[in-house]
Amino acid sequence: MMAASIAANAKEIENQAVTLNNCGVEFAQEGNFEDALDCFLEAQCLAPDDPSIRKNIQICLEALDDD
Question: What's the pTM?
Fold first, then answer.
């Protein structure tokens, strides 16, 4: 029973990371790179090994550096 609870919690954390990443993508598409970066950094805390989140952070940092 405990393993099922842990698996469910892990899935919920993964879902939160995906939601935050998607939110960040929407902000970035609007040109709002500061809010996008905030979302991506939160997502990275939940899914630190996700390469797409790392790439999105890099894109935001480069966009903000160009400003």
Answer: 0.90
